[in-house]
Amino acid sequence: MSKQPVPWTVEEYASYLETHAESTTYLEATEAHNLKWNTNRSPDGVRKKMLRHGIKTPSDHFKADPNADVYQSAFESDGNRAVATVSDRMPRTLDELIEACNVDLTVWKIDTHKVNRWGNDDNPNFQVKAKLSKIIPDESLWPVLQPIDAPVFTKPKQNISSNKDGLFTTMICNDAHIGYIRDESTGKLIPTHDRKALDLFCSVAESLRPNTIIINGDFIDLPDWQSKFPVGPELARHMQPAIFEAHWWIRRMMAIGAKVVYIEGNHEERMPRALIANTQAAYQIRAAGDHDEHPVVSIPNYLKLDRLGVEWVGNYPNGVYWVNENLGAQHGDVVRANSGGSVSTAVIKSGESVVFGHVHRMEMAVHTDWNFGKPRQRMAASLGCLCRIDGVVPARKQRNNWQQGFGIIDHESGNGIFHLQPIHISNGRCIAAGRMWQGRDLTNDIARDCNYPLLKT
Ligand SMILES: [Fe+2]
Ligand SMILES: [Fe+2]
Description:
By secondary structure, the protein is of the alpha/beta class. Helix content is 21%, strand content 26%. The strands form 4 sheets. An 8-stranded mixed sheet has the order 10-9-8-5-16-17-18-19, covered by helices on one side. It has a 5-stranded mixed sheet with strand order 11-12-13-15-14, with helices on one face. A 4-stranded antiparallel sheet has the order 1-2-4-3, with helices on one face.
């Protein structure tokens, strides 16, 4: 293989046509004219080039020398980056590509390279393609910085008005436990959250357009941020897709035009707990200039809640968001084994009306006590979960007494009254606002939007 191919000139080629008969090989022709064998161009390629110069040659005038190397190479550069290719009917190596394209390895470095093959066994074609960049880039060749061409979330106008009866609407969901189990044979990520249940909550919210949406804790699972329970490798190292997907769902809620509040649950609290236990040096540390922002290693920072305009209520288990002055929302920390047991305990213990999650059950209890001869009611409600309830969520046992659901609260503001409607989810469906709703599995939309193909099932 020649290192420095010398193409024929138009005149040389025309001269050859005058003096040689058909069916000579290209090699014979070039030698006859004392020219170097042009390994950079096939006979057919030369014929086409000459055609562009007005010299017509029968298509079968030349035969390629069967023993000759007939390859095509190209080196295209924008100054600091380049793509080099060599194509042939026989396999080529990266070293041969470097030689064919005269790549100066003191100037260029190979970033990636790939070997392609196409055609059939009788007529195979091979290509080696490499992407290169300058070892010392020429700064004057870099493009001028452009604004980022990425979708920027535009917060819609918030729905702050009451209805004609002076009522506001708050929707609340609990315990989605966004996380995954990796299928070790395919690498696919099987969700521990229930996308149909999440879709039901969002679809009903999109229809009702509530004033406020409360994400009441354990929205993200974080199984490997704790050491209390053993975590197998199939559950570990999935925080990145969980962050992407949790952000996707919150963005969808934000697009409704509601105020979105995210209350810390015990699973979000795993992160500061792990830092305190293992890496106190990173606990509560803010980035330079970010005094008013969330700590770098924290769920509200990873989810960029400030940028989305989401209100974060931390301080689990004491963090509370007041729906109005008579109803507080908390993630909760009371768990009793029997159905109804958790709300029965909470309604006595709390001293005020509370709606919570954490126990993954649909329960409600109302208690009336007396003060100076006047009755006073308070309520405790647990509104189920949006995670899967078929045993895949990491827990002490698999066959749990869990139910899926969420809540719709119509209420006055201030010291007013409220009405809480629990919405049960059953096999991907629910009844709300007098309608039947069918949850959709949006896996492929989420994988595409999050640019994370392994989320596809
Ligand atoms: Fe939970
Ligand atoms: Fe919880």
